[in-house]
Amino acid sequence: MGLFDKLKKKDDAARPSKRGRKVMVIGLDCAPPEHIFDEYADDIPNLTKLWQNGMYGPLESITPPITVPAWMCMMTSKDPGTLGIYGFRNRKDHTYEGLEFATSLKVKELTVWDILSEQGKDCIVMSVPPSYPPKPLNGVQIGCFLTPNDEAEYTFPKELKTELKGAAGEYIFDIRNFRTDDTQYILDEAYRMTESKFRNADWLLANKPWDFFMMVEMGPDRLNHGIWSFIDPNHPRYQPDNPYKGSLREYYRFLDGKIGELLARHADDETTVLVVSDHGAKAMVGGVCFNEWLRQEGYLSFEGAVPDGITPVNKVPIDWSKTKAWGDGGYYGRLFLNVEGREPNGTIPKDQYDALRDELVAKIEAMVDHEGNPMGNKALKPEEIYGTTNGVAPDLIVIFGGLRWRSVGSLGHGSVYAFENDTGPDEANHAEFGIFVMHNAPGQQNGRKEGLHLWDVHSTILDLFGLDPAPGALGTSALKK
Fold first, then answer.
1. Which of 146, 153, 223, 368 has its Cβ near the most Cβ atoms within 10 Å?
2. How many whole angstroms separate alpha carbon 444 and alpha carbon 478?
């Protein structure tokens, strides 16, 4: 008797009629391999059965490992440079007007469901970032955490929104205002969101035709950022007897139960199940005040004095006639250069661009931390890590301290080092590896698999349907590696 026979409920009335090979993908944003395959394995029996009876392993993420664009890199098998999406926010042009949010409209490459739709396969796609606004496909789609509110048009087709509300109840996209010191609020909302997602997923799988199903649950990510210092003894703020020490483990038990229920109702012997995450998580030591450092080093100048108190860099008048570089905050640092003929008031002659960039690479990588120890920073040139650089790429992509430090864009911290996040409490940064689990794929070799990359997922899914990956795909099917 197979795993799904053991998990099945007796009442199979809701299951669609047999359609041949189906693929179900459950995405767990920010789920680390050390939790799924090791620390919590005994607490999450459904996930553990999947990987113990299937192919599994760490899944290398993109550089840098950021939710947007990582999921779309996974679903298109393209790198951030090809997508032209370098993070949650990106420069829209070479002016000084700041950054714009990435949306689904920025994704021009073919996704898995685009290709499957062309082949007449029915698709259900739920909350895969960035998928707001939802775009047409052969099937149904629900927007992701970028959906502004419940009043927005967040489904394709549009009438699905009313149908879902009437049949499956509230759909919770994200934990609003999750950067808070109210730990219990984050936990309570994570449970509410997860219950909502799986309730809606259950209804869609039972009532809509499908060959391919994919959903992304944001709960692990929001809890990692909100409570990591409570659960990780290696976190600098960890207290052994804190009241939330077991809270993430308990959430995973709940999440695992929801996954088990979904599999029991909707995954049969003709269903291949994948469980994947876009990146992992690790303790965050603190932040590097990137613009403070650039100012100290003489690359960034302001008109007049910097205001007292923590102030976003876009609220401080920059003297562009004396500025060579500025930076942006986030889980990694983006450095932009002020180049003659490119930026409106560029100061760097084009023939000095390469030399200045090399100078900055050397200085950034030589930085020490607050205790005088080498940070181990990496300052990367986009054209050297991506196949191409569409859109407006940063001039340097900066990974501070092996992702144990984030980039802080604001000023007024009184130091280059900050230990409180300027955008709200945050306990974790992203880590370089997520998870890959595949169960019940024809011809698969079970056991731990090394060398898997995030963009292999696209090629694997299409291979399961007997289809070639998109032209220019970077990945290889896990069945062929």
1. 223
2. 8
Strand pairing report for 280-283 and 428-431: antiparallel
Beta-carbon contacts of residue 30 (< 8 Å; ≥ 6 apart): 67, 220, 221, 224, 225, 277, 278, 279, 280, 281, 430, 434
Instruction: Find the length of the chain.
Output: 481
Smallest Cα–Cα separation from 393: which of 380, 382, 407?
Answer: 382
CB of 109 within 8 A of CB of 101?
no
The list of the chain residues with pLDDT below 50 reads 1-17
Give the 3-state secondary structure percentages of the chain, helix then strand then coil, rounded to 5.
35, 20, 45
Cβ burial 417-436 (10 Å sphere, 16+ → b, else e) = bbeebbeebbbbbbbbbbbb
Q: State pLDDT tens for residues 284-327.
A: 999 999 999 999 999 999 998 887 888 999 889 999 999 999 99
Task: Record the tokens describing residue 187, joined without a space.
Answer: 């936990």
Backbone CA torsion sign across 127, 128, 131, 134: negative
Q: Which domains does the chain have, with CATH numbers?
A: 22-282+430-480 (3.40.720.10), 286-425 (no CATH)
In sequence order, the β-bridge partners of residue 318 are 302
Question: What amino acid occupies position 184?
Answer: Q
